[in-house]
Amino acid sequence: MSAAGAARREGTELAGDDPARLATVSLETAARGGRPPACAIVDASVHVRPRSQAEFRAYLPRLWKTRRLPSGDGYYYPNPAGNHLRETYSDAGPPGSDPDLLHRHLITDGGVDRVVLHPLTLGLLPDIDLLGAVCSATNAWLADTWLGPTHDRFHGTIRVAPGDPVAAVAEIERWAAHPGFVQVGVPMQSLQPYGKRQFWPVWEAAAAHGLPVCVHADAETGVEHAPTPAGYLHTHFGHAAVAPFMFVNHLTSLMTEGVLDHLPGLRVVFADGGFDLLGPMMWRLDKDYRAMRVDMPWMTRLPSEYLAEQVRFVAHRMDGPDDAAVAGEWLSMVDADRLLVYGSNYPNWDFLPPGLVYPDAAAEARERILHGNATRLYELDRGETA
Asked: Cα separation of 193 and 181, whole Å?
């Protein structure tokens, strides 16, 4: 086997699917239709990974270098048509592992101005010390590989394991001053909702450094709960339809258990779909809050009133109505122009190109979703001014 073939084989072990066997969707197909934006674009959700486990292990402490790690793609529900865009495979490694290729796809060809990189880790490993080491190595690898001066349009996510608050806070303190990191990343999967008191030190550390906390489903399946409260679904389609519901549990907990009142400067970003569930959820919470607020003396406002200042969602290809006539009314009903930030989900199969982000919305609303909201959230204009 050639060196290139060997590299490709090693890469596809991390990628979890074989581009020669699976009919993954192409960039051209994913981007068909829509309307090119007339503004600068910030892509707030791009997933990157090492070229190989050998590249990643170089950043692990000596104690963990010889430990066997999950592959990074142990999903319960892989997409039967392939998990990644066809063009993102290369001989250099799996999808999302080549900075130059990603730059060409998103920035040179795709018209994106800034990219927020969000590497995934390995789920909820039962060995919390190993998971902490994986998060720490991920951050060091990201800083070295993607956040150097040659890639000045890339911004990073500090990965932490909230189940070990001491280690998570230490990791935030380690990287918060690095100019390349703009947020803290935690998995959607958790054994407790994120409003619980054991997690507060992590949110306090993020808020103290002005870093948003981004919640996204992680790349592996470890010891987390079943994907629905009733157990396991049978198909990828069933899982994809209900998985975004998980944000409801965390957001409700953050509100009702007092985190957002305790930390008015904390900003939380839900980055894996489900925004179209927000309207009904808020209607119900607002209605019930009026009758039950005696349970929550620390909660000083209607649940919906926390959103504008402290909560954001990343736009997702599967969210919202397809009918343009309905989409405009829906966007205004849920304050999408204030709460949404654009994210492509590159290099995944549900890639959302900028041209398909609510093309019939008003120009001002579209500019805020594609550029303004993320620029303010991550304070990207501060770096431009400097």
From this structure: 25
- Could you give the domains of the chain? 3-385 (3.20.20.140)
Could you give the CA distance from residue 342 to residue 350 in angstroms, rounded to a whole number?
14
Return all residues near 14 (Cβ < 8 A) that are at least 6 apart.
49, 50, 52, 53, 71, 72, 73, 93, 94, 97
pLDDT in tens, 138-158: 999 999 999 988 788 999 999
Give yes or no for residue 117 having a pLDDT over 50.
yes
> What pLDDT shows up at residue 386?
30
Tokens of 237: 């389609």
Closest residue by Cα to residue 233 from 74, 77, 79? 77
pTM of the predicted structure, to 2 decimals: 0.92
Q: What is the largest CA-CA distance in the chain?
A: 69
Q: Per the structure block, which two tokens stand in for 291?
A: 């009758």
Q: How far is CA 273 from CA 177, 249, 256, in A?
A: 30, 14, 22
> Which helix H or strand E contains 158, and what residues bound it?
strand 154-159
Q: How confident is the model at residue 21 (pLDDT cuts 50, 70, 90)?
A: low
User: How far apart, in whole angstroms, are the C-alpha atoms of residue 103 and residue 98?
Assistant: 9
